[in-house]
Amino acid sequence: MKKILVWLRNDLRLHDNIPLHEAMQKAEKVWVAHCIESRLFAKNQLDIPKTGAFRAKFLLESLLDLRLQLRKQGSDLIIRFGKPETEIAKMAEILQVEGIFTSKEITQEELATEEALEKNISSKGIKIEYFWQATLFHINDLPFPVCKLPDVFTDFRKAVEKYAEIRKPLAFTCKNIAPLPENLFAGNLPTLKELGLEEKATSPQATFTFKGGESEALKRLNYYLWESDLIASYKKTRNELLGKDYSSKFSPYLAFGCISPRQIWQEVKKYEKERIANESTYWLIFELLWRDFFRFTAKKYGNRLFYPSGFKGEKLALLKNSETFWKWAKGETGIPFIDANMRELNATGFMSNRGRQNVASFLVKDLKTHWIWGAMYFESLLIDYDVCSNWGNWQYVAGVGNDPRENRYFNIISQAERYDSQAEFIKHWLPALQNVPAKKINHLDELSAKELAEYGVKIGSNYPKNIIKLKQTQAS
Ligand SMILES: Cc1cc2nc3c(=O)[nH]c(=O)nc-3n(C[C@H](O)[C@H](O)[C@H](O)COP(=O)(O)OP(=O)(O)OC[C@H]3O[C@@H](n4cnc5c(N)ncnc54)[C@H](O)[C@@H]3O)c2cc1C
Fold first, then answer.
1. Terminus of the chain with fewer CB atoms < 10 Å: N or C?
2. Cβ pair 268, 285 in contact under 8 A
3. Are 388 and 293 in contact (CB under 8 A)?
4. Where in the numbering of this chain does the Photolyase/cryptochrome alpha/beta domain appear (predicted)?
């Protein structure tokens, strides 16, 4: 082929980018485009945008970073807004390419887009080639066909660790990336306002902020491994709640593909050789296997990812009570550990893994409210939203996914006392509770009026009354 258009989707990077690499080998001229999908900014059933301002900002930053990198190569990133099946088809025609190279996606809306694009280009003699690249293990290297994927994570992990190999990441060597034709407008990056979103000022309570882009992703990788050696204690710190260093914070970069999981894996292997290999360095790769597991499971079960009855097909008697749901969503349940986590999410677009497990369990198991709403709320708010990880994890916590432990229940009070024993996290996000002793903070309804007055807590005024009475007796 002489000319190829690379359509970037959730793979906003130049390094280890298989469609880009393949295009550069096969074509004399390669152009790179991204279509900001209008459907991603539509409102969902909760009447909130599917993509909120935190993630949209991260996306725009990632596109700008790519654009600047491609400009250094004498080219540019072509940016369009709308439906990829229309915009990418139009662009392919204008550039008179013979092929479109892109990543393979697996979920409903993305597949529908692929199908529509194929239809639009089929009569024009333009071919489309898909490349699998979102996971650590390539789908073709799994020791079983996806339809036989184990339903239990440990079985999956043991099998891939024993029988499969991770492919080496591809370096970026610029070849055949062509300048844009003179009369072709590269396209402006929209503002958040143009996407129908409001710019959110950085919360003064945020302990870190994310900036999108491949350059930032590689910086974070370098920081987390080589500059700080934080990876060497990851297993001990990963369940903490406050600050930028207790976990890798790779998730938004992975979700947008600003970094590839293979690139992280290769760097960890190098770190293990040159500095230290321990259970923490292993554990980071272990977590990336969870990410793979959710993606392959979504591939195996298709649209069941979005079914209320989940992969298991389990019928749940859950309510759609919008009053309690919105109290949960806004962090106004009167349960400090839940509210602190939800307020972090609302103020920053991020929440720790420990926090996510607890707020999800609380919504489903304590409030008996539908998990689908929780997943939709997360989809809108999370800066690192990933369709398979989000919906898969929600199913897992709700008990309709691939959890071998029937009826997993997170006891919120025990969890709070275990993972936030000094109540630093709660006090950080709920300043109204700052004078309450850590031992009492998860038991506000047991405090006398005198004690509440002494600590400056006015229930129903500066802190909400609890919407449910939690007991500490159930297992955590
Ligand atoms: C209800 C719920 C919803 C979630 N939604 C998302 C989501 O939309 N996007 C997302 O990336 N993660 C999601 N997670 C998983 C996990 O909470 C985040 O990946 C993690 O908190 C991100 O922070 P980190 O990068 O510092 O993680 P680290 O602890 O540093 O882990 C490293 C990487 O491993 C992967 N990982 C770790 N835990 C998981 C997991 N349980 N499932 C899948 N991958 C994992 C992520 O890619 C992460 O970046 C969800 C978890 C729950 C319980």
1. C
2. yes
3. no
4. 2-136
Contacts of 47 (CB under 8 A, 6+ apart): none
pLDDT in tens, 61-100: 999 999 999 999 999 999 999 999 999 999 999 999 999 9
Query: 275 and 332: one domain?
Result: no
CA-nearest of 182, 213, 215, 172 to 24 is 172
User: Can you give the CATH number for the domain in which 410 is found?
Assistant: 1.10.579.10
Nearest CA to ligand 1 atom 53: 357
Confidence label for 313 from pLDDT (cuts 50, 70 and 90): confident
Q: Are 372 and 395 in contact (CB under 8 A)?
A: no
Tokens representing residue 397 in the block? 């916590």
DSSP β-bridge partners for residue 100: 5, 128
| 169 is a domain residue | no
Closest C-alpha residue for ligand 1 atom 1 = 394
The residue range of the domain holding 61 is: 3-133
Percent of the chain with pLDDT over 90: 92
- Residue among 231, 280, 393 to mutate when testing ligand 1 (max atoms within 8 A of CB): 393
301: buried, middle or exposed (CB in 10 Å: 19+, 13-18, 0-12)? Answer: buried
Per-residue pLDDT of 422-454, as tens digits, reads 999 999 999 999 999 999 999 999 999 999 999
What average pLDDT score do residues 26-41 get? 97
